[in-house]
Amino acid sequence: MKFFTPEWYRDMQYASLRLNFKSCSAASHPQDGDYEKQYEKWVKDQLAYEKKVSNMTFIDQFPVPSSASMGFIPPEERDAIKKDYEDSLDDFKAMFNSREEYDEDKLREQYKKTAEEETERLSLLLPAEILELVPDRRFVGITLLPPKAKKRLDRLSKESEARMEKTLSDYDKYYYEIESQLPHCFTDDSFALHDAAVTSYSFENGSVTMTLDTEYSYSNISKITLKGVTSVIGYPTDAFWLYDELHTDGETVTLGVLMSKGDDVFTFECAFSDADTEVTLRKI
What we know:
This protein is an alpha+beta fold. The protein has nine helices and ten strands. It has a four-stranded antiparallel β-sheet with strand order 3-4-5-10, with no helix packed on it. A four-stranded antiparallel β-sheet has the order 6-9-8-7. A two-stranded parallel ribbon has the order 1-2. A hairpin with a 2-residue loop joins strand 3 and strand 4. Helix 1 crosses helix 9. The longest helix has 32 residues. The relative contact order is 0.14.
């Protein structure tokens, strides 16, 4: 992989991380009760939102398509949108009627668990140089950082975003230079496998075959066969497809895929001479 490496993926995660956090002076040198005060404020913000949602009417949640709301949509498409809304009314009503009632005690229990889980998740994600400025990690779970830590995260996040965007731009430029030399199955719009799961993998008789569950991706490709394989690096079974890149020297094509399995992010690479894909349309 030359572009979408695990290091690039880390930059991608850091790039937007600054938007998740707020600066909080109390988190710099927390005294007894400071965390509890900030936690209660965080909980009340969540409760206010849930209360607002619980008071919404059916039309609030599922508004009827109107001329005003479709002002930027071509006129020829508006009738189709209205019909789709009418056809979905029963489903919308079922969703509305199945809403859980507002229950503050239940929600408070959920928020407590969420704060604990986010403390662990974000503590693993944030770099050590940020965490060393956070005396009480619990503040991380409710998305608060000491001002110095927030300032440092903002700088790191912007630097990561710049590197991430440059890599995307560099790959786009490179891809368009080689696009005409790539197998057609990899250059049309259906090859959009982000979040697809690799359900099986085999390497036999010079061919690599992967089957895919694409429920959460934008593709209907259910099987990829790479023929004339000369090298393989990585084992993708039970991993999720994140980002891919293609390379060619005019004869051999190399597919590189950044994948994730649990907390592990790794690369799969395969060099081959030809490829086929199979499509399975989803049932509606």
